[in-house]
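Feature request disguised as a bug report, sorry. It would help if multi-protein outputs had a clear separator. Right now it looks like this:
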Amino acid sequence: MPVRSLKARWLKFLTDDQVHDLHQAILEVLWEVGVRVEWRPGLEVYADAGCRVEMSTQRVQIPEHVLKVALQSAPSTFTLHGKQPEHDVCVTLDDVYTVAGSSALFVLDLEGQRRSATLRDLEDFTRLIDALDQAHIMHAMVIPQELPQAGVDRILFSTIMKNTTKHYYSQGQGGPSVRDQVEMAAVIQGDTQAVTRHSQFSFVVCFISPLVHPPEPVQEMMECARFNIPVWLEPTNMMGATAPLSIAGALVELAASSLAGLVLMQILNPGHPCILSTASGGFNMQSGTYVASSPEAVLLHCATAQMAHFYGLPFQGGSGLDSCLPDAQAGYERMLQVAPMSLAGVNFIHLAFGMMDQLLTSSYEQAAIDNEILAAAFRLSEGIEVTQESIAIDQLKGVGPGGQFLDHDYTLQNFRRLQWYPKLTTRVAWDEWQRRHEGRDMRQRANRVVREVLAQHHPKPLSDDQEYELDRMAQAFQERART
């Protein structure tokens, strides 16, 4: 089924004056504070483009005119390609999509046990996300803990590419990761030139807050520019810890950091596809831990989307759930995030499936429940159809006072189109719930659905020879990375 287009820009938390004030603050931070870029080749690129660079402190200060040139060349629309055309994602400033969860170290399995993530979990989660209709872009839901972690991104790449037809949001460990993944992608797409034209994967570049670009992400940006791999520029701060406590201050920090990355990408490769991104959250002053799901985090993501659109750039936001179980807390936390974020035009809602326990644990059951919650949130974002037919004057005249519309032609022809029908949610009274579902709650119903999916859904997008070559290359690349 083709990836649907959902245009949703209904909700704004910032006035035009506030957008202007934030923009001025971002410009001031970029020029007067700057960012620390910890890779000399990157420093030299900034310096050659007219930025003020202090090599001894690795400080880059970016003037407004350099940012303007970068914004003029950065595209606001482009395509993230899947293995099949129906899974292409058309990026615009209006459309809203989802990205799967990310890099959990533990799983909450279908037996209810929390345990370390394994390679089998990576395979199973990838097949599950591939089957969920509200999941548009694949990510590594878990990091297998039985594998050596040096070079593990190569194993992630081969495993995920064998188990999905969707676009892959990849990650790495520096410049060699990008080169190795391009080489593996060439096995799938035919050659390196095909990868550079229509890459079936993109690359997340993670910065450190506040305002630090370490060596590995800078190397990754430079290699992505070389091969035209779309990038997600992602600083992730914690309000009150690695960013100012205020939402506005945290927004300025993450926007300045990601725009500094955008400048580098556009200097290296004008027109390079970039998405401003964050997984920012709060900081629990009592426990000293990251807060994934809070009203403040949602406001931060919605407002940052508005600022990104002001710059003509797509935006990804999302921060997972704090709840440790697929329970009532998880349900309200997820809807607290996805309903306003989709209404505010967060173009990619990240960490949208199964991510719990402050991003440490992926839950199979919650992933299925999240698919349901997202479907409901997206129905809100579709808004209200107002046409001469839907206003229904003729229907009201025809039925008259005291009539009914159940067998009316308009009802019979449109009830499936105009009403959302859930798959997990029950809408029956007690006796019917007992008869149909044997008294199972939503978590138990999700457990059954996931088991059915994993038993039946076995995508095979690659040939046996391609799978063999990917595995061979991934293992060889990982061995090299470990030495």
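(second protein starts here, but nothing in the output says so)
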Amino acid sequence: MNSPRTPPLTSRLPRVGTTIFTVMSALAQQHGAVNLGQGFPDFDCDPRLVELVAAAMRAGHNQYPPMAGVPALRAALAAKIEALYGRRYDPERELTITAGATQAIFTAILACVHPGDEVIVLEPGYDSYGPNIELAGGRVVRVPLAAGSLRPDFERIAAAIGPRTRALIVNSPHNPSATAWSAQELDRLAALLRPTDVLLISDEVYEHMVYDGRAHLSASSHPELAARAFVVSSFGKTYHVTGWKVGHVAAPAALTAEFRKVHQFNVFTVNTPVQHALAQYLGDPAPYHELSAFYQRKRDLFRAGLAATRLALLPSEGSYFQCVDYSAVSELAADDFCHWLTREIGVAAIPLSAFYDGGCDQRIVRFCYAKQDSTLALALQRLARL
């Protein structure tokens, strides 16, 4: 008797393998290194938020919620966005609760990208954008951020827009560079898109982590951009609960209608008790208003420690990342340097080159400072050897 045979499968993503994040985390564990490569906190959320989830479960909120999200959460979110950015989204027709920001971005792409359409992605950038576009049958058009500053290069963006361009993905505050878009840059983007039908997908998951007295400038706050934008954010990033995977999308009613057509078939809906808890927790604006100060203190602590090394600090205007140029320390390629740093120094980082599709070695690596002070202190103690 022949043994059972698994039929061959042609991969939808043949170039995708194990990510550098998985590789570096495993290497950090193997060598007992402080893992500053992972982009999430190593500390707990507010205990009150956990209590609110438990209370929602006890109150019987354990069945499917409405497809678009719990009404109370969408109403609270509409009030928050209006207070922060001056735009009123209709909670019924323009706000959708998602299973994290990654699902939100993927769903927006599936809703608007048809086979053969082009989507512009700025590099370096979050690694899910490209595969999402390819799964939708679109073509990724990669435009590098300006060398050195890692800010948008509008001449290159303009040159990339063509008759097949369906959407542009932007991210501010930016992962991995930690830059944040300025008002002038939003105006330039609006002027560039004005004569086109190009949609905007604005990834704003780090919206409450902007430093040195600056305010986050959301696409929602810019009427021209808001009219063509899916604006994505994350409760997980804001409230230190990345594992809960709850995000949201704000978009004009016509775009939201198409978004929800896809959303109802790829996740349908999102964790019910967590939504009820978040609706109550959003009633207090203090946690998100205080988040920038919370992370700026960590940023300043980490930067002060790094200043004693030969690592050159790039600006960290937003997010919870710090990029450094290690040219004065090593001539190794970025991947090799990160492996060496993990094995020999005991601190794990991520090479900036990992955020480019074809790699782009600038001898820059990214650290995450969303860690306990004791974690940062141990990392800095080890990095002092540099």
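Even a blank line would do. Unrelated, but nice: The longest strand covers residues 165-171.
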